[in-house]
Every structure is written in C-alpha cells, then in structure tokens.
Write a structure and sequence with these properties.
Elements: E1 5-11, H1 15-26, E2 33-40, H2 46-56, E3 60-65, H3 72-82, E4 87-90, E5 96-97, H4 101-106, E6 113-120, E7 136-138, H5 140-144, E8 154-159, H6 160-163, H7 177-187, E9 189-191, E10 197-199, H8 211-216, H9 218-234, H10 237-240, H11 242-259, H12 262-274, H13 281-287, H14 292-313
Length: about 325
C-alpha cells in the first residue's frame, strides 16, 4: 500500500467554499489519505456539514474549537498532533486540490520535503516560476533568492517525522514561512513542476492586501518580522541571499517608525550599516519625522510596489 498522506484544513465561516475544498479532497485518485479539518469557531453551517461528512467517510477527522483562535497556526499545530500519515500537507478552506495531487506526490522517489506550485484560479498560470520549468532538488539558497512566497502560493508535503519536530508560532502574523525556511534549510526540498492546488486569491492570502486589518495587527506583524530577521541571522541569510535580508531589515525599520519604537529602530539601523546601505540613512531619518498617517501611507505604497514587481518577475 502507498504511504498515507494527511491533509490538514483549518476553516472559519466559509461553508460554501469549504464544500468545494472538501469535494476536491474526497475525490483524489489516491484513496489513502487522512483529512483533518479544524473548525476554528465557525458560526455558519460548517459544523453540521462537517459532522455529516465525517459520518459518511472514515478518512475524515474533525477537531472543533468553541472560539476562533485568531490564528491558523493553532489549527496547524492541533492537526499535526493528530496526524497519522507519513506525509503532511495543509490546505486553505477556499482552495482545491487537482484530482491527482496526492498521487503525483506518491509517484515520486521518496523525498523528505516536496514543494509544488499552485494554479492561479483566475489566470490558470502556475504561481511559482522562479525554479524553471523542470522538477529538481532545491536548496534554501534557491528558495530565498526566488520570488516565491513561503506557503500561500505553493503547497508543501513534508514527512511527518520531520514536521512533528516543529511548532508553528501562534503569535505570528503571516509567519508560516518561519517553519518552511527552517525545514528546507535543514533538509532541502524537491520542487515538482506541476500545479497541485487551485489557488483562490483574496485578502486572507496576501497579508498586505487587507491594509486596515494589517495595521490592526501591527504588533503581531512586528513580532513576526523580528522572528524572520532572527532566523535569517541564525542561518546566515545575508551570505546567501542579500536582497532577502535587506528587504527584511528595511521592512522592520518602517514598522518601527510607524509604531514609534525608536529604541528598536536604532538597533536595527546598525544592520543597515553592516551591509553598506548608508545611502538610505538620510531618507530614513527624514521619514522618522513624519506623522504616523504618512508613514502608514508610505508603507502601503511601498508594498503595492513590492507586489507589482513580484508579479512581473513571475
């Protein structure tokens, strides 16, 4: 029998979209799957639907939280604890797997970590193009020097005996990349050049798109950004992916400017000096005198440019 694959699906108040997601999972060409759905305090018909589905199909496990945790990572961690498959992957509740997604993974030679692109629901194009048009092994250097995100626009299958050694940080906002970077740094990955997940773009997938929600969560975003920089230093990202490192430092500088945390601002400015970007110093000092509303507008416009450039590079 082929190895079992566990698919973990957090859901919150997306009953209609969830039905499409579950249909795509239950109709996989490979039947040896385990579907763990975490109902994160939904107030719609999701609970009734999932309990009914569970009664009809023993491949489904259901975990229900009475209240929303405010983070998908609490759901991820709960699902990982219950997982019994040899491989684990995660799904958004508004996305769908292509019919042979699991079969495609299991047809490969044994791999510790497998990364595959999604298919953009609107354009029908693959969301990851940075690794070329062939399947191949990739390193953390390849990943960090690419335009590829860390989760929302790709799908990862990881051996459970590896993933169970990690815990998703539930305080982080947009922080699942912290886990993927650590795992790929340690184990490498195999890139499968085939779209396996149909990706539905919306505000929940792009942490900067819902700007008001973004600034409401500014403390969690600063926390996540600090964790990324801490991890980058730990694995010497500056030596293998200078652009990625610089972007993280500059993001933190503007977040500290916005939050008014001048003490941390001056600490992170030392990082700016260390990679010879002193040309930015007068600009940053000038921004430091701007009122928060203008700093906020600057952050929004900078990120719109970032998204535009990333899309064009793809």
């Amino acid at each position: 029998m082929s190895p079992k694959v566990t698919i973990i699906v957090p859901t919150y108040n997306r009953y209609e979209l969830l039905k499409k997601c579950m249909k795509s999972l239950l109709e996989q060409t490979c039947n040896n799957i385990e579907i763990i759905v975490i109902n994160n305090g939904s107030q719609d018909n999701s609970s009734e639907y999932l309990n009914s589905l569970k009664e009809k199909d023993n491949r489904i496990k259901l975990i229900e939280f009475e209240k929303n945790t405010g983070s998908p990572y609490a759901c991820y961690n709960a699902g990982i604890k219950e997982a019994t498959g040899e491989y684990i992957t995660f799904m958004y509740d508004d996305d769908m797997l292509v019919p042979d997604a699991v079969e495609s993974i299991l047809n490969l030679d044994e791999q510790d970590v497998i990364l595959a692109p999604c298919i953009d629901e609107d354009s029908k194009e693959l969301t990851v193009k940075s690794f070329g048009n062939v399947s191949k092994s990739i390193t953390i250097k390849d990943m960090l020097n690419s335009n590829q995100g860390h989760g929302e626009e790709s799908i990862n299958f990881v051996k459970s005996d590896i993933l169970k050694n990690y815990i998703f940080d539930e305080k982080a906002y947009g922080g699942e990349g912290l886990i993927w970077i650590e795992i790929i740094n340690e184990h490498g990955a195999y890139y499968l050049h085939k779209g396996l997940r149909i990706y539905k773009k919306n505000e929940a997938h792009e942490q900067f798109t819902g700007y008001e929600n973004y600034f409401k969560n500014i403390e969690r975003i600063i926390y996540s950004s600090e964790k990324y920089l801490e991890l980058y230093k730990k694995i010497n990202v500056y030596d293998i992916a200078k652009t990625r490192y610089c972007k993280q430092v500059i993001l933190l500088i503007f977040l500290y400017l916005y939050s008014g945390d001048r003490k941390k601002l001056f600490i992170v400015l030392e990082d700016l000096k260390s990679f010879k970007l002193k040309v930015f110093m007068p600009f940053i000092i000038l921004v430091g005198f701007l009122p928060n509303v203008l700093t906020k507008r600057l952050l929004i416009n900078m990120n719109k440019l970032r998204i535009l450039l990333r899309e064009r590079k793809r």
